[in-house]
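#lab-general

N.A. 3:47 PM
ok so I finally got the sequence cleaned up, no stray characters, all 499 residues accounted for. can someone with queue access submit it? mine expired

B.Y. 3:52 PM
send it over

N.A. 3:53 PM
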Amino acid sequence: MKKYLIILCLCLNTLFAKQAQGAVTAYLTYAVFENPGQGPYLETYLSVIGSTVKAIEKQNGVYQGEVEIEIRFLQNNEIKNAKKYVLNSPEVKSLTLPNFIDQQRFVLANGDYIMETTIADKNFKNEQAYTTKTPIHIDLSEKNVTISDIQLLESYTKSTNPSILTKSLYDLVPYVSSFYPENMNTLKFYAEVYHLDQVAGNEKKILITYFIESAERQTKKPGFAAFRKTVANQVNVVMGEFNINNLPSGNYNLVIEVHDEENKLLSEKKSFFQRQNKDIPLDKPSLAALDISKTFVSKFTNKDTLAESIRCLRPISGYSEIEFAENVIKEPNVELMQQFFYNFWESRNGKDPEAAWLAYREEVIKVNKEFKTFGLKGYDSDRGRVYLQYGEPDSRNAVTAEPSACPYEIWQYNSLMNKSLVLSNPFNKQSNRKFVFYNPDLVSNKFILIHSDARGEVKNEKWQLLIYKRTVASGTIDDTKVTDEGYGGNVGDNFNNPK
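B.Y. 4:20 PM
back already:
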């Protein structure tokens, strides 16, 4: 499955659709496959969070939700394929709906497209439909060995009643995410290899390997590799799974490679994913083996300077890195601190880790100057963290004197990139994302992040209420009906129309 949409070899992107009030939350991914002799087709996988969909009681006493969906593929502003339909949730006996999924297929030729996806809750009459736009590149050449997108799976079973979920005699339930939390300990996947019979020769011996590698270093993780020998066919299926119970938190690629009988690499495919696993810390013995004597960190000999340099990495650190950093700062071991600091930057820029650190340090200086407040460094503030993690926003609307409102800021990013990932792996890219901060004490420079529509960030459907709370007595209003319009404010317009 793919995370970013314009990369040639990768074919599954994860999007997040969310609105501010009474809105549907849904995750959308896609993958490109090929029907040999007929051409490529694209599958969309939509996972709807049932608790965000309004349930309506039906005549038979059960409850059901309805989501209106439209998916269009545009090329030079011309619609090449499209579907508009209503997705019904399962029928249940309570108002709380379970999560539910949908899968669609679109025939598309090789080329570049914009996928426009519009989603809305049909039962919220006043809800404005939410649209995302995603660039897509399709290139499954018939002259070369190619690999489909790697489809991440929640489960797979032998098919007894073929449906749209069926491929290669299996029913494949998609995993509509690239994030594996602690409670998920198995990574399952499916892919197809095309044209081996034409390139390598029909029935020739073929070796297919698949493994997990570090996304930053592109080095294989020991214990996470498998292979199988087969013969070349028109379509060769690759399906497997890894137990990731002992995979540490971090950023990884799932890699598939195809070799001929002379061990020549014929094709390769990578799919990015993230793992959270607090039970598996960084490998301290391996870290201690690093020779940093001839690196730039050898000049960092003051413990306090090192500790401060490590602390400011938190906004762009992974889970295990944050935990390790907190522990290493407590130890009176300058060398281990140096090794951790060097490993951090070498893993993100193996060619020039010092340049990567110096560029980041300049950004830290900026946020410390602008966002610091009483007893809080700029990089520890919410605005500082967001700035360091995602970069400078494309628009920043700071409102300090709106009637009835606490001071607030709305940041908007045309393209959101998590800088904790290396730039050569732009799989966490998101489009048109916003962050809302407010200052409830009216005195300090401490603005708190109260809402964002970006993946993995805080979401609060009543964020507008917080901004206007200072002039509203508790219990005097219906919280679910508070809007900026009722108080003569502009926060809704500022959020929907960034300036």
